[in-house]
Design a protein that fits this description.
Blueprint: E1 6-9, H1 13-23, E2 30-33, E3 49-56, E4 59-65, E5 79-84, H2 87-98, E6 102-108, E7 115-120, E8 126-131
Parallel strand pairs: 1-4, 5-8
Antiparallel strand pairs: 2-3, 3-4, 6-7, 7-8
């Protein structure tokens, strides 16, 4: 059984998912906009993203913008956890996510892992970056 995170954005999905795909080295980013749907669907004609997806390390991350006029709250009660292969890679990922965002817990050694940190990126997504004990 797998669970695939789906993130909601308010007009920044394409930018966020492009950033995440680059950050995690994914080459299969797909972006479908509301304007790509046929008029028969009744969906609004908008350049907002209806569905975006990429995969990295055998796992997928999905996202979309909320439809125009729909209330939006950034990811408030969820965080995406990413396990980095080593402390150096974890630090690079953490620093890029922190650029323009807000660090909740600095990336540093902890009692349960060689390195762990929490950050909210500039798109409002909460991340936990961890290096598992080896």
């Amino acid at each position: 059984m797998t669970f695939t995170p789906h993130l909601y954005f308010d007009g920044t999905c394409a930018e966020a998912m492009t950033f995440y795909a680059d950050l995690f080295g994914a080459g299969d980013l797909q972006i479908m906009r509301f304007s790509d749907a046929s008029g028969e669907t009744g969906l609004p004609s908008s350049d907002r993203v209806m569905h975006a997806q990429f995969s990295a390390g055998g796992h997928a991350l999905m996202g979309s913008d909320v439809p125009p006029g729909t209330p939006h709250q950034p990811q408030t009660s969820v965080a995406i956890t990413h396990t980095a292969p080593d402390t150096e890679t974890g630090q690079v990922l953490f620093d890029r996510l922190a650029d323009g965002g807000e660090v909740t817990m600095p990336f540093a050694p902890s009692f349960f892992a060689p390195a762990f940190g929490m950050v909210t990126d500039r798109f409002g997504t909460h991340w936990m970056i961890i290096v598992m004990p080896g």
